Amino acid sequence: MTDNALTTAEDNPPPKAKSLRPLRELLQFLWPHKSRLIAASLALVFTAMAQLSLGYGIQILIDQGFANQSQAGLRQAVVFMIVVGFAMASGAFIRFYLVSWLGERVSADLRQKVFNNLLTVHPGFYEKNHAGEIMSRITTDTTLLQTLIGSSVSLAARSALTLVGALILMSLTNFKLTLIMLIGVPLTLLPVLYLGRRVRNLSNKSQASIASVGNRAGEVLQSIKIVQSFQREAMERDVFGQEVDTAFQIARKRIQQRAWLMACAIFLFLGGMVGMMWTGGQDVLAGRMSGGDLGAFVFYAVMLGSAFATLSEVWGDLQRAAGAAERLVELLHQDSDIDDKGQATIAHGQAVSASELTFIYPSRPNTPALSGFNLTIPPGKTLALVGPSGAGKSTIFELLQRFYDPTKGALTYGGKPISDYPLAQWRQKLALVPQAPILFSGDISYNIGYGNPEATEEEIAAAAEAAYAKEFIERLPDGFSSEIGAQGVQLSGGQRQRIALARAILKNPEILLLDEATSALDTESEHYVQLALGELTRGRTTVIIAHRLSTIMNADAIAVVDKGAVIDVGTHGELLSRCELYQRLASMQFREPSNNSHAEEGKDSLTEDAFGEDALTETVPESA
Question: Is residue 343 classed exposed, middle or buried when 0-12, 13-18 and 19+ CB atoms within 10 A define those classes?
Answer without folding.
Answer: exposed
